[in-house]
Amino acid sequence: MESENDDAKALRQLILATELRLEKLKNELADVERRSSPNRLTEGQDELESLKDSKWPLTPDEYLRYGRQMIVPSIGIQGQLRLHAASVLIVGAGGLGCPAAAYIAGAGVKTLGIVDGDTVEVSNLHRQILHCSSTVGLWKVDSAIHSLKGLNPNVEYRAYREHLSPENAADIVSHYDIVLDCTDHPKSRYLISDICVLLQKPLVSASALRTDGQLMILNYPAAPQGSTSGGPCYRCIFPNPPPANQVVSCGDGGILGPVVGVMGVLQAVEAIKLITAGLKVSHTSDDAELQESKVLPSPSLLLFSANSPSPFRTVRLRQRRPDCFACSAQAGLTPESLTSGSLDYVAFCGSAAPVNILSDEEQISAGQYSELRNGGSKKEHVLLDVREKVQFDICHVDGSINVPFSKLQGNLDTTYPWLPETSPADAPIYVLCRLGNDSQVITKKLKESGLGDNGKRPILDIKGGLRAWKKDVDSSWPEY
Ligand SMILES: [Zn+2]
């Protein structure tokens, strides 16, 4: 199985590399043809040559390509030329970054940089629309840029096959006019916001989980630290990160493809609006023009909720926080503190490490539990599956009882209404979840509640959860 996956991955990489090589050869051929018959200009060259003497600022192809947006009154030729000169950085080539990149590339920016250190997985494809089955296993940035080149070959694409980090952030971000945060973790949100404050870059930030999303334009106008004419930064809105154990990723919490798509598309809308309006960057702390104009955009948070009868809501946000760590006059954030690593974003946001709160005696392996089910000493027991119901409905082990973690974690009903009445008072309870973290928490909680009756009723956690069950017991178990 493993080696088949490796073979498939190697073949996909070879196919993509061959396609890129073919593209390069075609360009080389065009060059050779042009040199061998100087009078016969190739199509692209023809356009470039004609543009030199042309009184028109765009090529004929560009007038055609962007015509439908250029005739929108708020864009016009002025807006198109601003797009033509703009460089945009997208951090994250996932559910937000893919649709955002497609529309921004399609709109005709000059340069589009994409940062992502992950590779494409099958479970990404329902929402990350630039990737496809044939690019599974490749770098997301390579897969995305391959699609984008088909969409608009006129844009200069730059690939960063790495995660944005305090060490590389300034080098990368400094080349761009505007940044889109398309990542999915607080630690990258704080880092991206901080570097945008330091380098005075406007930031379009979005997030999505399950059927909800949110969007903010931050640090716009982009003004120096301490300036009151600048827009708020991420730390102004969220001075403290959420507790690490409450951060739910799309992988754990689930995400509806078009919901994150809506948010990514809205990021593209906002970026295009800012660029075509002429990005406002204030270089002094009391920029006269900005102060005078008094048309500072009022910062707001857009909330999208797919299941709500009115899915879009807007909440007004305050201007910069006077004591903000990043953007205020008393800011502790400096370029040195960011790049030197003295600001530890991982420690600041915490990390939800795998749970390890039980002793070996309080756990049983998936294999041991399976033997116990099938073996001669088949004993009456309770198998408690603490995944959320929606996951339990996808697949569950025969005979298991489902009581979701979210219900058990709150005030525990110590009448244990879920225990079968016929179950003997000493029947062991085995607790199971997806990965073996939540089940440990519940095992501990049930024991502490007295259900174990001082050891008369064993309560054991099935180590490694259903992932271990698939690996050691039932290889046909559907992994989701
Ligand atoms: Zn701030």
Could you characterize the architecture of this molecule?
With 480 residues, this protein is α/β, with parallel strands linked by helices. It folds into two domains: 264 residues, 3-Layer(aba) Sandwich (Rossmann fold), CATH 3.40.50.720; 113 residues, Oxidized Rhodanese, domain 1 (3-Layer(aba) Sandwich), CATH 3.40.250. Helices cover 40% and strands 13% of the residues. Strands 3-2-1-4-5-6-7-8 form an eight-stranded mixed beta sheet, sandwiched between helices. The longest helix is centred in the N-terminal third of the chain and has 35 residues. The radius of gyration is 28 Å and the shape is globular. The two termini are 17 Å apart. About 2% of the residues have low confidence. The chain binds zinc ion. Zinc ion (ZN) binds next to helix 9.
Reconstruct the topology from this structure.
Elements (H helix, E strand, L loop, with lengths): L1 H35 L6 H10 L7 H11 L5 H10 L1 E5 L5 H11 L3 E5 L24 H12 L4 E5 L8 H5 L4 E4 L4 H14 L3 E7 L2 E7 L15 H4 L12 H4 L3 H20 L11 H6 L6 E6 L6 E5 L18 H5 L5 H5 L13 E3 H9 L7 E4 L3 H6 L6 E2 L2 H5 L19 E4 L5 H11 L10 E5 L1 H8 L8
Parallel strand pairs: 1-2, 1-4, 2-3, 4-5, 9-13, 10-11, 10-12, 12-13
Antiparallel strand pairs: 5-6, 6-7, 7-8
Helix pairs in contact: 5-11
Bound molecules: zinc ion (ZN).
Zinc ion binds next to helix 9.
